[in-house]
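Practice record 12: protein with cytidine-5'-monophosphate.
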Amino acid sequence: MRAPGKVNLSLRVGPLGPGEQYHQLTTVFQAVSVYEEVVARSSDERTVTVSGPQAALVPTDATNLALRAVEALAAATGTDEGVALHVDKGVPVAGGMAGGSADAAATLLACDALWRTGLSRAELLELAATLGSDVPFVLQGHTAMGQGRGELLTPALSRGEFHWAFAVRDTGLSTPAVYREFDRLHALADDPREALRRGGGVAVPPDPDDDVRLMQALRAGDPHALGAALHNDLQAAALELEPGLAEPLAVAQDAGALGVVVSGSGPTVAALARNRQHALVLAAAFTASGVADRVLTATGPVPGARIVAED
Ligand code: C5P
């Protein structure tokens, strides 16, 4: 199986209601050609091994999202079958690009095929949403607007191919920590000038109409317009926790990126290029300035999780 990572072209975060665990979102996802590869083999046990440049950062115990997907599918279908998984990670770990979610999505499809569960696509999507807010999107791929906590998807039209360069850091950011920092910044709204100075302000329920220009840019296949419309409400919180992120943002701007944004909860920085050649120029600028532990280039949109080879 292969499942892509994602970049949030727009991420608008509403307030956290009392007693609520998740923030209401309006986001526009694009799946990009950075992949997790998952091999699933029949086994008496349920195990996972991991390879790739950041494999050491990934747990292989029951907290691993691929193993949680195995357990969720087994519980939903009442099977006692096992599986031996191997995950080759191409998506940055804890980078805001849904690498763990891609593992979960690929694993759901792999075990569904291996165990012949007969679940419908809708049932798989429902199970995906229980595993994480981004899992349904990486299962679907392409371009979509996400609402609710990100799991309610509406496919969006997008023409042509967009080119990206990504600055990756080995020290990831915890998604819950970034949301907590977002809440802290917005709590400063008692003092609106201080809140604005730190990138905060009053959190308002997100309005999908705020992304009209972005959706038009996607329909037109216009990278200049898309670059101007990129938006991330979590960026100020990510920068507060990791001030060094200002450097890759500035480097990409200086190298002529059409737009640059922190991906999801970060710390990966996504720079939109004019074309494939320019994506390599942006990647070289990241590398030359020493602002990234690793640099990737990719295109989007691409399809979601799917079987690439079967024995
Ligand atoms: O759904 P996922 O497991 O990716 O979310 C991880 C954490 O990020 C949640 O436990 C929550 O703290 C935060 N989150 C949030 N609002 C969302 C999505 C995630 O507060 N819409």
